[in-house]
Structures are given as C-alpha cells and as structure tokens.
C-alpha cells in the first residue's frame, strides 16, 4: 500500500508528455497482449480444425481405395493392408493409419503387437456410416483422429482411422504462433517509437509542464487577460485573431466569435488593415466607432520562432475629453488675461479723459466699449442654450480676436438645451472652430469665421464657415481620415480633430460633410435630436 501511494505521489510530478507516453505505452501493450492472446487462441482452434480436416481427408481417400476393399476380401487382410497403411502414414506424416473391422478389431497398426486388438476411441457413428473426428488418448497418447467407414455395395465392411498426435499438431501451431509473436513484437516496437515521438512533440509543445501546472496556468492567464483594464489582441503570423480579452472587445466593438478570423475582417477599417501590416507601433492614436484608443503593437518571438503579434489597446476617450476641456479652460484663462489687459487700457483711457476734464467723452467711450464687449456674449447666450457649448464659443471668439480673426454667430442660430450630448457638441464645434480659425489665417483680409446652428425636422444642423482658401478637391475625401492634415506642420498630433468630429457625429447617428462656398469652406454636421426633445416652433 505504501509503495502504491509513493508511486502515485511520484507520478503526480510527471510532465504531461511523460504521462501521455506511459499511458499510451500501457494501452498499446495491453491491446497487443489481448490481440496476441486472441490470435493464439484462434490459431490454436483453427490449427485443430485444420488437422481434423486433414485426417478426415486422408481417411476418406484410403477408405475409397479399391486396394483396401480387395484386401478385406482376402483370407489374411492384415498381410495386404499393413504395408499399405504404413506407406500412407509415412507419405502423409501422420502418426497412425489403422484399418479395422466395423467392431473395432485392428487389421493394421504402427506397432505390430497392437494388431488384432480393439481400437481405442469412438467408432459407433462410423460403423453406422457417418464419419467422425475427435481428440482422444489412445495407445500413442493424445491424438487428433478421424474415423470413416469402408463401404462395399452400400454396406459398412470396415473402418479406417487416421490420426496425428497432439504434440505434432502443437508443433505446427508453434510455428504459426512464432510468426504471430514476431508481428506483435514488431508492432509493439513501432507503437513505442510512435508514442515516443508524440511524447517528444508534446513535451516540446507544453514546455515539459504537468497537467496541474497547465490547468493552473490556463486559469491564471484567463483571469488576468479578462480582468486587466488594457485591451489585448494576439494575432498569428497570418494575421488571424488568436486571443481577445473583454476590454479589447469593448474598445473595438466586437461581438460574436472572432477567434480564427482575419483581423481585417474581425476589426474592420481603418484599424484592422493597420494591425494586419504587423508594423511596430508605439502609442499610436486610432479611432474606432465609439472610442479613441492608444495602440501598441510588437512582434511575438520565442526561441527564434515567429509567433505572431501582440497588440495592446488603451482607452484614450476620457483622457481626450479631459484634454479638450483643459484646452478650453486654458483658452478661457488666456482670453480673460487678454481682456484684463484690454480692460486696463480702457480704464486708463477713461481715467485720462476724466483728468483732462472731458467727462462726457469718457462716459461715451466707456458705454461704447461695454456695448461692443457685451454684443457677442449676448448673441451667444441667446443662440446657444447648452452652457458648455456657449462658454466654448465665447472663449474661441476671444482667441480668434487675439489672432486677428472675427468669430460671429448667425442671427438665426439656435441650439436648444438637451439637443445632443454636451461633450460631443464641444468636441464637434471646438474642433471645427479651431480648423476654421487656422484656415481663415491662411486667407486674405478680412478674416472671419461664422458659426450657425439650426434645430428642426428632428435634427440639429451645425455649420462653421471660414474665409480661408477653401478645400482642395483632390483631398476632399480624406479630410475626416485620422492622420490626414493639410497643415504644413503635420505630425503625430495632427490629423485628429476632423476625425474626432466624424467619430462624434457617427456615434450620435449623424454625419459630417465639407464643401466650398464663394469664399473659404463650410463644414456641416447633422445630428438627430435626442428622443423626446421638442424644438420650439
């Protein structure tokens, strides 16, 4: 019992490859042993049957010999039958050929002293005209024998028995069994070699780990992969998805079974083809249908073998939104700083006019400056009922003014509260205004940007128009593609603004388009109004 327990404990430390080898070897040995035993038994039975049939054939042949019938009619049948029987025995390699009366008294026998004695064995069926075969122990020991009648004119006049000792039959069986055992041994060697090769391949594949280690590793890896906050994709050298965790499914909007599918088909454009190129990527920003993701891609190599590509994804959507908000706040601060300087200058002017005794002119100047400063703010607050968007437009107007561009709001502009997600509105309008201000600076004076918004017929239409040089028709179809920029200083931070506009529009079920007008370009975004939102008539 202790030895059994020790062996089980020792076997538990075996690798999976060793366990498979031992189990396969045991199964092969057991199967071959059973097959060999069955074949041996079958050969033994077949050998006995063949020997019995052979004895029966020899006996029939001798019983039908006319010389036997003639000898039986002679005064001394033994004198004629003994030489004949011995000649047949030698030529057929049998152990005895006995010719006897129908009562079993021998006429012939290999041992002459047995002539005249009673035959030992079953003869009743043969005496009645029916041949018989059996294994019986006679004067020469156990033998396989056949007894057949000798008939003359339809009457049984004598019997012929031919037999071969069991030892001789077994010797013939031994030759067949040797062949069977040789084949079995060869099969065992071939099976053992095949099992060893399989074990070697399995050991190399599983890195010589045991079942418990593999199971534990699988459980731990699965838990880690599906709980980390980074998305992960594993691609094979052919670009097919081999593993995808929950975060990657969320970021890429994947549903259903994607393992085994090409990444171009599973992920789709534009990120899918970029991953299929297997180029090394470090912190590249890509857009999916609903997210901004930071992509890292590295080749996976182990022991000099190309295993494919490892892709990690980080959600940059919230960070980008916070960055946009920070830039907006920074713009507000810069605008306030500029306005503080302007206010100081205006205050100095007013004070100087009062000191010069020109109070009426100081009052008129102050009222005029207040009206100009308040005009845009009042127009924005009247047109835009979304506080975040209104603050953004006011801030952008201040920035534009500092850069020599006049930003105006259309008199009929109207953005009702709750028309769309404020974050998406800030993303769309903020990026469009930034691009429009840059475009206006590239055009001639006067430089201006115009913002318009209309809500009706179930949709919100946002439009930003500029006085810039317009859109080159050759690149019009690429304006909203991530990474494309018409600016001379294009780089890693360029080509994202309009792509974010397009993404936000699609995320809300809308679309973004661009076109030229009589001077400059106009970018239009159409968004469906939120369900249940009613626009005042």
From TrEMBL:
Gene Ontology terms describing biological process: osmosensory signaling via phosphorelay pathway; regulation of DNA-templated transcription
Residue stretches spanning the membrane: 177-198
Signal peptide extent: none
The keyword Kinase is assigned to this record: yes
Compartmental location: Cell membrane
Domain PAS span(s) in chain numbering: 217-257
Protein name: Sensor-like histidine kinase SenX3
